[in-house]
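Two quick folds needed for the group meeting slides. Do the first one here.
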Amino acid sequence: MIGSGKTTVGERLAQTLDLDFYDLDQEMDRILGHSFHQLVEEEGWVAFRELEYSICKRFAKLDNSVICLGGGTVRYEWNLDVIKGSGLVILLTASLEELIRRVKLADRPRVHVGTTAEEDIRKIWEKSKDKYYGAADLVYATDQKCIQEEVRELKQMVSEYVKR
């Protein structure tokens, strides 16, 4: 979900596990040569989703990596088809209030045009929470502990999951 701490937690988890780290939003910016926000503004969400899908297909082929997907990636079946079976999927959660607080700090394009950041986040969550949970192998809340403790606990969860 947008604002859940995917990049921050993902980077630190990758470092701790000594794995490569990839971030879909950062990869998109690298490919475009500018912010994906500009892509959304100039060409719309369809162009964004097409590029997202092509990146997901490349990411799904990677091994020994921590990959941070976009906040809306799992809301689309074509992405889920690529992601499922390619590795462990962890859903990072936080309270709506915390997600809203974090998203307000970053000026991000709205999924629901003409809404406030708060309205946008609420609508996304209400419409899609089942998809987020359905895509996840593990779920972890990122609004209750410090980042070091979150990474330590996630490392332990990943280790236990892999041992199964």
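Then this one, please, same format:
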Amino acid sequence: MEERAFASATRLAGEIRDRRIGCLELLDFFIARAERYNPALNAIVAWQVDQARERARAADAALVRGEIWGPLHGVPMTVKESFHVAGLPSTWGNPAFRNNIPAENAVLVDRLLAAGAVIYGKTNVPLMLQDSQSYNEVYGTTNNPWDGARGPGGSSGGEAAALAAGLAALGAGSDIAGSLRNPAHYCGIFAHKPTWGLVPTRGHSAGGLLAPTDISVVGPMARDAQDLDLAMRVLAGPDLLAAPAWRIEFPAPRHRRLGNYRVAVCLESPLCEIDGSVVDLFDRAVTALKKAGAMVEETARPPVDDAEHERLFMLLLRAATASRLSEEDFAAQQVVAASLSPDDNSSRAAVARGATLNHRAWGAANEARTRLRYAWRDFFGRFDVLLTPVAATAAFEHDHNPDRDARTVLVNGKPRPYHEQLFWAALPSLSYLPATAAPLGLTAAGLPVGCQIIGAEGEDPTTIEFARLLAAEIGGFIPPPAYA
């Protein structure tokens, strides 16, 4: 039974359909693991065990009648705390929202349930989802299953930790600046940031907002790339307003053999130095790609200057998240913005400029972004995927210094600014591109490292299939020793 802790959701769904294991039996297995391991991890922070067991019993009864609810029939899973699940708190780690109990589910949650999933808990996040670590005053700190002194990433860090520790079969998170991808990288799992707009985000909002947030997406997390594909086919599709007019028809992956891929590789930027331990694992992957017959270009560059890309991303990112600010916080950002000198390039300045951007300036920035989207289209006419780091290092030790500008990450033995970690995640985020995070292996210190596989807009199956093929060549998810 224990081997099922790290089995793919696809395999477990097949075992349920073949009646090799019962839905309630499998759920109780994962709940027992969570009860054993979660106290030290603090990954799962809200529970609905009784409701999940009732649903699992109903799923077993449906099988007896010959009914299959969907491709996830009876599969136990968790979702990020920021998704609305009727009857469970949705605080976003903010004490002000401690009593926010939604009456309805997020669209993503409803689609998972319609596919047959059994959701038994929600996982931890940073305050308002705005950190590369997952801690807050409501639920406390989540630890990395590979090393409890380190964080699991953020903002989907609790979800990544739960999956890596084998506490659920499948997960769901969100991402605006790496929040699916950096936890996957730090915990050694897979995650997929969809093309923007492909999966509805309604019900993923601290204040009950209906309008989608620019750049922000929701998507699946898993221990197997095949599960990402399965989940995306469950989740993708228009929300209510557009549903009468259009449907999703995924293109096939560009190739089914690793050797047929044209792979661009980008590992260097003056804006984010990469640690040698990460570079070593990339070198191993690149060698494997070449051996498999892939065409690899190791000097490829994105179709925009790095500094200009960062400026544009930070401007539109902070404009997008301004809707989450209270009136008091927004007024404070206006004061900061008015005091800035033109050459102030601090993260404090970037936040203030974006948060107070007027609509005319936003329109100009969006035009620049749209031109970049077309430049990426040309880029992916020459290449099938772009391979980049997710972050500069493996998981780093907990750092809860309230002064973000004072935080650092040790890269090649030197402290580097904390905010530099946003650079690589920004490449696909700004231009709405799909990106799959996939494991590359372990550093000499025994910590997982991942890569980011970026593809053409709307071609999500290609990045997921490439992740699957790469894992078949170099290995994929590895269970953390303390949980195996």
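Slide caption for protein two: The first strand starts at residue 44 and ends at 47.
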